[in-house]
Records
---
Amino acid sequence: MEMETDNQTEYYYGDEYEEEIDLESLHILSIVLYSIAFILGTSGNGLVIWITGFKMKTSVNTIWFLNLAMADFIFTFFLPLSIAYTAMGFVWSFGWFLCKLNSFIMVLTMYSSVFILTAISIDRCLSVLAAVWAQNHRTPKKAWFTCLILWALAGVFSSPYLKYRDVIKVNETMQRCSYSFGNDTDLRAFRHKALTITRFLFSFLLPIIIIISCYTAIGYRYSTIHRKRSFKPFKVIVAVIVTFFICWIPFHIFQILELKVTGDDSSLYKVILVGMPVATSIAFFNSCLNPILYVCMCQDFKEKLKKSFLKVFESAFTEETTLYHLSSRRSTVQMESLVGGQKIEGTNPEPK
């Protein structure tokens, strides 16, 4: 029994259990969720790109969220291929080029999204722990440079999918967009395992460790400040991060479980057969949720919504001033004591 799964909506494992499990209903659910994600994702993320890229004043925050929206927009833009592929019973009719490109784009945008979320968390952490340094060194130019590096890094991690995804002929009338790891059984298993573990480590485990560490450090800094501080400046990005990982956790769990499946383990096989389509659908659906979170978590949502979407997104993304004020007074006082009462250029005392 051989099973190949990935995040390209392919979870065809053979015919042994299809009569026992109603896969058709799961496929219909996937098509519905993909379609909703496509409609909401392209329109919502397109709106975010238009506002952050052309209507709002350029800042570090708008650059982060612009790139995040670009990743989600590209992801959802390619979803019609996955919708058609699932609707056609996983028969690929779009050629080898689109097979490789679609697989590459799906993984590229997944990596870029999680890398950008990690970068935002590090940026937030530095803004609180080193407010003076952040005010003097955080610039839109450096944010753009960081994003370019992250996109390039995501491209490196995604490049194996250009090599190993291909159109595989199942029989005379059926072909699939699937892995092509070669004819050697051991080498094929090794490559599949290497891709799965690499994806789990660098698109999930390590980023979430870094992100949790950043917000733990922020929370500790807050606890050392005598005056009560609000976490409101972080609510939008924290909501985005939590939503992202909640949506992708099931997918990564089933991917790891899939590596444990053996020819005699029919019970686990059935669990993955049912769970993988659902987990993939949830992961894909994440791509349309961020614009909804930006709007719904904006301060004074209802009032601003009556005015314009521009005001809504400005409120959602304009957070750095508040972040600096959280610790700027403390940092300034410390600097003044070191230079005999003279303020260091670039520091801003907390407003009275």
---
Amino acid sequence: MCICVNCRHVHNCVTYHLIQKQHNYRYNKKIISNYFIPKEALINININTNHTNKNIFFDWDLIECLSFVEIPGYWIT
């Protein structure tokens, strides 16, 4: 699970923005003038296959970040 959803930097973090793009998520496209660049972010990519129709899916999760500051549920605001 991506830890970004409970981080105070979720709304302007470049790493979270990248993960949203990789998930083809329709994120808010408002222009953010003060992007936050986290320190030592570790992304885990799981590769899942569906043998029935031969599809490959990638699941991107940020699992560690030195800039993480916990505020549970902050992404909802």
---
Amino acid sequence: MNSINAPFIHKYQPTYFRDFEQLNPTTITLMQSLISLNNLNVLIIGDSGTGKTSIINSIIKEYYGNDYNSDNVLVLNSLKEQGIQYYRNDVKIFCQTCSLIKNKKKIVLLDDIDLINEQSQQVFRNCMDKYKHNIHFISSCTNVQKVIDSLQSRTILVQINPLTMSCLTKIMNKIKINENLNMSSEADEFILSVCNNSVRILINYLEKIKIINCHVDKELVHKLCTNISYTIFDDYTNCILNKKLTDGIKILYNLHDEGYSVMDILDNYFLYIKITKLLSENIKYKLTSLVCKYIIYFHNVHEDELELALFTNNFVNLF
């Protein structure tokens, strides 16, 4: 989908192996070799947000080429409460019929196989043994330790590298050029720091900037890409560093008066801690423990705005 009005998440979704910034040449060569050998019993392994599902879709696209037919692919939903047992009859019927494309096998796809129980994985493995002459079985997982050994031994394991800052920068620059986005270098740096290494989040932020259609500087990007502006948190942190306890408490109380709950404030400050350059790594470590302590307390007991003052006092005492 490359139409002008398409959402960015579809418009910039990779289609072929060459479109992925995180795939190294060795992995691409391996994938292409498996396609040419007509052997696609593959388990894609990678962290959340590394593009496992998109890579699987590109494998299917590269395998079938222009002959792609959705009736040749069966997608199993690992999140259904009934598990793969729910699909047993569907799988049986699908696997017993021939491919609609000459010299190509059908494909059964199971995303997040590590989320289903061992019994369901055994069912999937049995299907692989029984129908391997007619079906490719492609699956993905985040934690390979939760995938049974007998299933791993029947697949080719492909590890997907996490997205690096260099990959994210290339993706961002490509979209900026294509969409004529007018952003300052500080705005670029901030978006990369708050996207949490997720292409999906990065693209959503860039689409916001496209919608407002104006120059985006550091101040504006703080408002667009955070629930609570990090500029406010900068002011709060500087108050703490300068031992201005009363001013710091006032900033948090003002946020509370604007409608943010105590949990909202601490959740967003937790995210802010990870990227701020105002605090040393040692203080960040101690402060993260302190924030988590308060969040757990609010979740299990109660939430009171007075705790914002107590939190600020404890924060000052870290120095």
